[in-house]
Amino acid sequence: MKKFFLIVFIAPFTALAQNNYHPDLTDSEFIKMISDNIFTSRSAYNNLYKLTKTIGGRLAGSPQMVKAEQWGAKAMQDAGADKVTLQEYYQWKNTEHAVECSGIR
Q1: Which DSSP string corresponds to 20-56?
Q2: Whether the predicted pLDDT of 52 surpasses 70
Q3: How far from chain centre, in Å, is Cα 9?
Q4: Quick one: which of 67, 73, 62 has its CA closest to 11?
Q5: Gap between the Cα atoms of 20 and 100, Å rounded
Q6: CB 36: neighbour CB atoms within 10 A?
Q7: To 10 degrees, what angle do helices 27-40 and 2-19 make?
Q8: How far is CA 68 from the centre of its chain?
Q9: How far is Cα 47 from Cα 11, in angstroms, rounded to an integer?
Q10: Which of 3-7, 16-20, 75-79 has the highest average model confidence (pLDDT)?
């Protein structure tokens, strides 16, 4: 979930900063440009609001998780990402198991 959070909320800032990228900038100047964008743009807060209020809780395997994945891919495309790829993963399904204790020694 941390990786998803970082990608969804940091990628828009780096994409916006890259639109204004100048090859003669030093690393610290480039980082300052990203930082300035974070403080002047409300896109991170808007993204967080949409993710938490519109989609809601995102437990693993829930329909909200799937919605959040689709929303995150669209948000990155809207932010200007060249290529967005959703990776397939194995979704574990819990089956019912029972444990019985017949006595304690």
Answers
A1: T--TT--HHHHHHHHHHHHHH--HHHHHHHIIIIII-
A2: yes
A3: 6
A4: 73
A5: 64
A6: 12
A7: 110
A8: 8
A9: 11
A10: 75-79
Compute φ and ψ for 82, nearest 5 degrees: -65, -40
Does the pLDDT at position 74 exceed 80? yes
For residue 12, give the 3-state DSSP assignment: helix
Structural contact between residues 50 and 71, judged by C-beta atoms closer than 8 angstroms: yes
% of the chain surpassing 70 pLDDT: 64
Cα angle value 68/8/50 (rounded, 5°): 55
Evaluate whether 55 touches 67 at the Cβ level (below 8 Å).
Answer: yes
pLDDT of residue 30: 86
Cβ pair 91, 84 in contact under 8 A: no
Which residue do the tokens 């959703």 mark?
86
Q: Domain map of the chain by residue range?
A: 2-78
34 confidence band (pLDDT: 50, 70, 90): confident
